[in-house]
Write a structure and sequence with these properties.
It comes from Halogranum gelatinilyticum. Keywords: Membrane, Transmembrane, Transmembrane helix. It is a single chain. With 473 residues, the protein is an all-alpha fold. It has two domains: 237 residues, no CATH class; 215 residues, no CATH class. The chain is 76% helix and 0% strand. It has 21 helices and no strands. The longest helix is centred in the first third of the chain and has 31 residues.
Length: 473
């Protein structure tokens, strides 16, 4: 136990040291303040349109769970030793090869550190900020903060443990385990579709804290069990090359036209494919983000007395999947890997763009068409939403590349760049989100204006990508 606590302390100190050196202590320490301000503004805006405190707090708990699901995808990179995901922090994980500590012990300490780290750095300011709006309307008390923060932390830990266990079982499990996973996932999706078609509703307010001791105990027990399963199945083994993968790489390179750029694009695609979880982790990351956004859009829509255009809203929301997809693409290699070769950084940026187009397009198309099944959108609305989708994805991809370079994960903790990124993203996408709420009440010409604006921000994204690539020359 003493060794475990020592590992936990060292990892916490190292996490702070790393980000403080990267961004400066004050800039890094200011990150929670930025989150608090952004959440407070959103909370106040939602309160103005009539969203009660119970719905807001339930929404925070739901989003914390979704954030935990995303963070738990660490299990997908376990076989690649987490080297590209964690950078310098990985030195602590490699201690299992040189020091008398087990891999499970190190991973367990790392995950416990993560829960505490995110609870203080993310969930505490978000919990406080979420209650600014209700407090202004005299609909919240200090006691609500004391219940919301632990509830959101528990939800985050539960989401992390669930994805960690599922991904560890998927990566290292037998075919039977994978088939059972697909059956469970398909059954859950079928249940949602059936419930919707039967008119069965769900009141998000039921997720609002405080919870009964029995619920807390049950969720905590389930989280601990999933956590232990995920840690037990966690594997540091490297994934190997196969002749079949090499053949597939040559085939893709040829289909892309051959040449140096095609080789780089094919390499990136197959690096993602051969990594643990393969391309499925892209679908998972985008699905978690989209699922959380869909819930927010639907429940905000219940408090807006205007007919919505779901296709436009979902098209704008799907644009946000550009960030997690690009993040996965940058984890398979880095510019330093090509220093011995006659490859420019501009070529690397263009290769990432090509790989992004190949991998992101099917993901967003499947999700977009899937969402169409849950709406009554006509052909015109779907076409308009498709245009918004294209513009949003291009805009956020170009913006992400320009602002973050090859380190999108590290940028999240850079307060200045994160604030600038959030502001530009808000300015670019907010008009499209607003259009999704108000278009039915406006003349048809505004639909054309929305499409034109979406394509314009898409062009801005392409120019941002070109700027990032030319800057790297």
């Amino acid at each position: 136990m003493t060794r475990f606590l020592t590992l936990l302390r060292l990892m916490t100190v190292e996490e702070w040291r790393l980000h403080s050196e990267l961004f400066g202590g004050r800039r890094f320490a200011g990150f929670p303040l930025v989150l608090l301000v952004l959440t407070a503004v959103a909370s106040y805006a939602l309160t103005v349109i009539g969203v009660p405190a119970t719905t807001l707090t339930a929404g925070v708990v739901g989003l914390a769970f979704a954030f935990g699901l995303q963070t738990g995808s660490i299990g997908f990179v376990s076989r690649d030793s987490l080297s590209d995901l964690l950078g310098d922090v990985t030195l602590l994980l490699y201690a299992t090869r040189t020091l008398p500590v087990s891999a499970r012990e190190v991973v367990a300490a790392f995950l416990v550190k993560d829960v505490g780290y995110y609870a203080l750095l993310f969930l505490l300011p978000v919990s406080v900020g979420a209650l600014v709006g209700p407090a202004a309307a005299s609909d919240a008390t200090f006691g609500l903060v004391l219940t919301l923060w632990p509830a959101s932390t528990l939800a985050f830990a539960a989401g992390l443990a669930l994805t960690l266990a599922a991904s560890s079982l998927w990566v290292d499990g037998s075919r039977l385990v994978r088939v059972l996973g697909l059956v469970v996932g398909g059954g859950a999706l079928a249940a949602v579709v059936l419930a919707r078609s039967s008119g069965v509703g769900f009141d998000i307010g039921t997720l609002a804290p405080p919870y009964s001791p029995l619920v807390v105990a049950g969720v905590t027990l389930a989280t601990v069990v999933l956590f232990l399963v995920g840690v037990w199945r966690f594997d540091f083994a490297d994934s190997g090359e196969t002749a079949a993968r090499h053949t597939g790489y040559r085939w893709l390179q040829h289909r892309l036209g051959g040449g140096p750029l095609a080789s780089l694009v094919a390499k990136t695609v197959f690096e993602v494919h051969r990594s643990s979880g393969g391309v499925w982790k892209l679908a998972l990351s985008s699905g978690v983000l989209l699922g959380a956004a869909v819930v927010v859009v639907r429940f905000v829509g219940t408090y807006v007395s205007l007919p919505l255009v779901p296709a436009v809203l979902f098209g704008a929301v799907l644009g946000a999947t550009a960030f997690p997809t690009y993040s996965w693409l940058t984890q398979v290699d880095s510019p330093a890997d090509y220093r011995l070769y006659p490859v420019s950084e501009r070529s690397l940026y263009l290769a990432k763009a090509g790989a992004f187009a190949l991998l992101e397009t099917p993901v967003v198309l499947v999700y977009y068409l899937g969402l169409a099944l849950f709406t009554d959108a006509g052909v015109a609305d779907l076409a308009l939403g498709g245009g918004v989708l294209v513009g949003s994805v291009l805009f956020l991809f170009g913006l992400t590349v320009l602002v973050t370079g090859f380190q999108p994960d590290e940028f999240l903790f850079d307060t200045v760049r994160f604030s600038a990124y959030s502001l530009v993203m808000l300015l670019g996408l907010l008009p499209l989100v607003v259009a999704g709420f108000v278009l039915p009440a406006l003349p048809d010409v505004f639909a054309l204006a929305t499409l034109g604006y979406a394509l314009a921000v898409g062009v801005v994204g392409v120019l941002a990508l070109e700027r990032a690539a030319s800057r790297a020359v």
